[in-house]
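Standup notes, structure subgroup. Blocker cleared on the 6-hydroxymethylpterin-diphosphate input:
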Amino acid sequence: MGILNVTPDSFSDGGRLGSTEAAVEYASTLLAEGADIIDVGGESTRPQGARKVGAEEERERVLPVLAAIRRRHPDAIVSVDTTKRAVAEGAVAEGAEIVNDVSGLRLDPEMAAFCAGAAVGVVLMHSRGEVHDMATYAHACYAGDPVEEVARELEERVTAAAAAGIARDRIAVDPGVGFAKRSEHSLRVLARLDRVVRLGFPVVVGASRKRVVGELTGVARPAERVFGSVGAAVAALDRGALIFRVHDVAATRQALDVAAAIRRAGAA
Ligand code: HH2
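Run returned:
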């Protein structure tokens, strides 16, 4: 899953894609590099405290880009990274097939019913709090093993999604690296990804360029964290992840293709 942020303030690549044409060009590059899904997002959750974006502004950022990607690449699978029903609705009308909700359908009371009715794929990511503080440490309190709490809270989100009528085979789950998690929590959740896999859904992991990678590698600039990010993706693959949300598609794709081939050869 290649990341396409049409935000002026994303933590690693904000403000780079200033026009619809530039965004579509970038989507073409991600697909050529081996992305299977393009994840388009119009609201940042960056750790410094993201600025709240209204639904109308987010729609204006995301929808023209989605429409243009679909025109240029009619067969591409596009997901929309949003917590808002109004944005998801517009995106699905433009051809998005997946709603990637970093709140796990918590923040907009209309989101779950919309996703059920539209019969889209849904990524339920673990987080706590609101968009502006979910990527901070404000809610990074775990009494015991964070893995158990994250798995339990994800299970609650799955139950809520199913209760709203979302089919179980349209759900994927994501432990939310860096969301309501200090680096030690993110590491623990990645190390014990098998616990999340056991929930019974495809697992999405987004460690790309994140703070935990920066801390482990000593690389301050997010855009330069490619090697560490690839390491995280390979480790996640080994622990059962199926979808990798990444900025650096070519590097990750090549590493994962090799790592997956080694896994398959071992299983034969
Ligand atoms: N992380 C971010 C945004 N969306 N979605 C899923 N499913 N999993 C993630 O880990 C995830 C996500 C944050 O990263 P990014 O989009 O690079 O930054 P920003 O929030 O600043 O736009």
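Discussed briefly. The mean pLDDT is 95.
Next: hand off to the docking folks.
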